[in-house]
Amino acid sequence: MTNGYHPIRRKKNNMTESIFFILMVLVAVFILFKSPLFEVRQISVEGTSIPSEKIINVSGISSGQNIFKLDLKSAQNKIQLLPLVKNVNIARQLPATVNIKVEERKAVGVLQIKDGFAEVDDEGVFLRTANVANTKLPVLTGASINFPGIGKKIESEKLSTLINVVCELPQEILPKLSEIHIDEEGSIQLYMLEGIQCRLGLPEKIKEKSQMLLNVLQELQPQGKKIEYIELTYYGKPVVKYSDR
Predict the structure, then answer these.
(1) Rounded CA gap, 191 and 140, in Å?
(2) pLDDT tens digit string along 158-187?
(3) Which domains does the chain have, with CATH numbers?
(4) What is the pLDDT of residues 80-93, one digit of tens each?
(5) Rounded CA gap, 63 and 244, in Å?
(6) Which residues contact 22 (CB under 8 A, 6 or more apart)?
(7) Phi, psi of 38 (to 5 degrees)
(8) How far is the C-alpha of 163 from the C-alpha of 178, rounded, in Å?
(9) For residue 154, how many C-alpha atoms fall within 13 Å in the half-sphere facing its CB?
(10) Of 109, 183, 197, 229, whose CB has the highest number of CB atoms within 10 Å?
(11) What separation in angstroms does the CA of 59 have from each of 45, 97, 107, 152?
(12) DSSP character for 39?
């Protein structure tokens, strides 16, 4: 008498299913890595003034590559070597597009160097050389600096202080400035395009002092009097010196 159980037939069925599964996996792998459907046809670049062609060339990504074989981390690291690049994100958009999003460093000031001027960002990174006549950024002076290569951070305590001051100043006042200076004692002076000196004292309460400076300028400049300097060393007690000339 038999109970209808056939272990040999069941083993054959399991083996057939396993072979079928393996074949399906191989077909899927072939489609993913060999099919022209997944060859890169479009590469988009966003968020930067650097020419797209340069970003793409530096990344090492090119049309015709299999989108799944791309080493995105390596491409990101290559792009981040560019001085103006702060962060990069690269993503696949199936079936055949690669999106590169760049966060660009923004210059906050200009430093005098041996052969001209250099732009620096809010982290003190030397971005590129600059023509001071064509920039609207303030010149940062008073810091003793050893310049590294372009794309490297400049190590200077006084420069860090100057950059912090720039970042705390109201946006309305920045276009009015020609220079921000730090002296031997660490006190800050602003020089405006019209020649007014603004003495802020130690780099404390910069936002409050600069807002008071704006208020003083808005009140006094319409009167037509020529201002020599505005003393704001002690917050809350502005002193204005008018020019005798």
Answers:
(1) 11
(2) 999 999 999 999 989 999 999 999 999 999
(3) 37-104 (3.10.20.310), 132-242 (3.40.50.11690)
(4) 999 999 999 999 99
(5) 69
(6) none
(7) -105, 25
(8) 15
(9) 28
(10) 109
(11) 11, 14, 24, 20
(12) B
Beta-bridge partner residues of 92: 98
**Beta-bridge partner residues of 113:** 116
Cα gap 188→182, rounded to integer Å: 5
How remote is the C-alpha of 52 from its chain's centroid?
Answer: 17
At 211, which amino acid appears? Q
DSSP code string of 107-171: EEEEEEETTEEEEEETT-BEEEEE-GGG--SPEEES-------TTSBP--HHHHHHHHHHHHS-T
pTM (whole model) above 0.90: no
Tens of pLDDT, residue by residue over 24-72, are 666 655 665 667 888 999 999 999 999 999 999 999 999 999 999 999 9
Q: What is the pLDDT of residues 121-168, one digit of tens each?
A: 999 999 999 887 778 899 999 998 888 889 999 999 999 999 999 999
